[in-house]
Amino acid sequence: MGIDPGSMKTGFGVLKLALDNQQENILHMNHGTIVLSDETDFSARLLGLGDSISQIVATYTPHIVVVEKVFLSKNVDSAFKLGHARGVVICESVRKGVQLAEYSTREVKKGVTGRGGADKATVQAALLQQLHIQKIVNFDASDALALAYHHCQKLIEKQRSQRLA
């Protein structure tokens, strides 16, 4: 499961990786966006985010939650709010006993599209094709799916290298 945290919108993407000796399949299970009320204060939004993440993790029981590594932002206030939201996602995932993985934005974009500087529309278009789905609700959800997809690719690479060893 990939989660793209935000203080107003948080995307999630659930994929299933089917690995056996003959083939590897990445299957789309679900994706969506948690929209937090802008009428509540920040701490109440974080509480709501935690409740939503807890429910989603309980529903899909992922083995791994993938989030973006921390990055520098020009807007310090936005960066701190994102950091808080990211902390809530990590806390609720660990509370449910789920492993965490982290990747940089550039690494995920390169893994999905072949270009680390790809824009969000390009990433979304690549995911539509690679996952054989018709629509992704928004960029928050496609960012989350990209995190999950990239991690699945890494697991596939690891299994292939173990088979060759």
How would you concisely characterize the structure shown here?
The chain has 165 residues and is of the alpha+beta class. The protein has helices spanning 42-60, 76-95, 105-113, 120-131, 139-164, and strands spanning 2-4, 9-19, 24-35, 64-68, 99-103.
What can you tell me about this protein's structure?
- The protein has 165 residues and is of the alpha+beta class.
- The protein has a single domain, classed as Ribonuclease H-like superfamily/Ribonuclease H (Nucleotidyltransferase, domain 5), CATH 3.30.420.10.
- Helices cover 52% and strands 22% of the residues.
- The protein has a three-stranded antiparallel beta sheet with strand order 1-2-3. A two-stranded parallel sheet has the order 4-5.
- Strand 2 and strand 3 form a beta hairpin.
- Helix 1 runs parallel beside helix 2 (76-95), helix 3 (105-113) packs across helix 5 and helix 4 (120-131) packs across helix 5.
- It is globular, with a radius of gyration of 16 Å.
- The mean pLDDT is 93.
Descriptive key words:
165 residues; alpha+beta; Nucleotidyltransferase, domain 5; three-stranded antiparallel beta sheet; two-stranded parallel ribbon; 5 helices; 52% helix
